[in-house]
Amino acid sequence: MKTQKELERMAAEIRTETLKCLRTRGFGHVGGCLSVVETLAVLYGDIMKYDPENPKWEGRDLFVMCKGHAGPALFAILALEGFFPMEWLDTLSIPGTKLPSHCDRNLTPGVDASTGSLGQGLSVAAGMAHGLKIQNQSNRVYAMLGDGECGEGQVWEAAQYAHHHKLGNMIAFVDWNKKQVDGTLDEVMSLLDARAKFEAFGWYAVQVSGSDVMAIRNAILEAQKNQGDKPAVIVLDGIKGSGVPEFEQMEFNHHFAFDKDMIDKVIKNLENKLAAMKEE
Predict the structure, then answer these.
(1) One digit per residue, pLDDT tens: the chain, 280 residues?
(2) Fewer CB near the terminus (10 Å): N or C of the chain?
(3) How many structural domains compose the chain?
(4) pTM greater than 0.90
(5) Parent domain of 49
(6) Residue 244 belongs to a domain with what CATH number?
(7) How far apart are alpha carbons 236 and 213 in whole angstroms?
(8) Are 101 and 28 in contact (CB under 8 A)?
């Protein structure tokens, strides 16, 4: 197990590389990428089984980025872990790239599911988990949902399916950053109490801070220990654009074009912070 400082450094690296990746295009889904960084650090740093040299290894755990627009954050951790060269991060969405704006399993090594049509990812994850269960495999499936995405009815069909088929080999996360493309959840479509809703569907459900790597790791380990044959969900109480005050404070920070001076300053500040963390 990594230490808290190691996981926090890993998160800082993902955040920095994600923004560098997005800077290449000059715009992108910034807010929702940054709010999943700590969870990705924990999953790829401490929890999941995988082999960068053999991305299709049958013994690997599977990850579904249901909110496919957060692909750049996933690309960043995959590059950092050696699934493909770091230089690929400079090719986001350009012709011929292997890194499109949303996740594509046919193009990007380490991506297990093509996503982007919101509401469908949890069904994919449940199907994966059910298949593994039928085959008596020990692999686990993890899925990252957007909170706005939970307004899609298919999410709840998948939730019902996962409980009915006793998929205790899957854990989902809800990125509860409280905003979606057109405004806040309360303005557009209130999610109400996500933990209680999943619990009502028969899931093992908990809520933790989405920026606390230790709380996230402990929640995952506790879920694995206690979920039994229930699917589990961890609601991540977070902030859209987290880790970058300039972006946290923006009213509309789901997708936007960068001011070059601002993004250069933000990345420089993150690099300085990361350098200081490495010296600790």
Answers:
(1) 999 999 999 999 999 999 999 998 889 999 999 999 999 999 999 999 999 999 999 999 999 999 999 999 999 999 999 999 999 999 999 999 999 999 999 999 999 999 999 999 999 999 999 999 999 999 999 999 999 999 999 999 999 999 999 999 999 999 999 999 999 999 999 999 999 999 999 999 999 999 999 999 999 999 999 999 999 999 999 999 999 999 999 999 999 998 889 899 999 999 999 999 988 7
(2) C
(3) 1
(4) yes
(5) 4-279
(6) 3.40.50.970
(7) 11
(8) yes
